[in-house]
Task: structure prediction
Amino acid sequence: MLISRIVILALATFSLQACNAMKGQSDMENMVRLMKQNSPEKYEAVMHSFVESAKNSDIDKMVALTSEVTIKQMGIDALKRHYTKDTIPALKACVKISEGGDIVHIDESQTKTGSGWVYHKTCTFGKDETVGIQFVILKENGRIALTSFGLG
Result:
């Protein structure tokens, strides 16, 4: 009887581990599929273009790279003031923005506007001081655009 219980417990444990392994494989397969469908490089290119525009004080290009939903929510004048007063100085202060970093996929059910990627980077400023920065880039109505940027 004891041997039967041990065998059953061992089989249950093995089955659970096998299921978890298959689940992990499915998660990896899903991530590969997402990356093929929504290439993070295309989204990251928008992020780099936004940063370059800020460093060049090109507000018109920054606005052109911004999500229509964000523009509508903030209003164009408030958005331009925010970019002028906060975003441009913050990004100009970054001597270096890290390569790599965490990249997180978000889908339309989370955003209600479109799927895309969140890029977590590190900004180096001053004398080797750093701060985390985050860019949210989504595909809205077929267009890849920046929906938010923040420090911290």
The helical segments are 2-37, 40-55, 59-64, 68-74, 76-93, 108-111. The radius of gyration is 22 Å. Strands lie at 96-97, 103-106, 116-125, 129-140, 143-151.
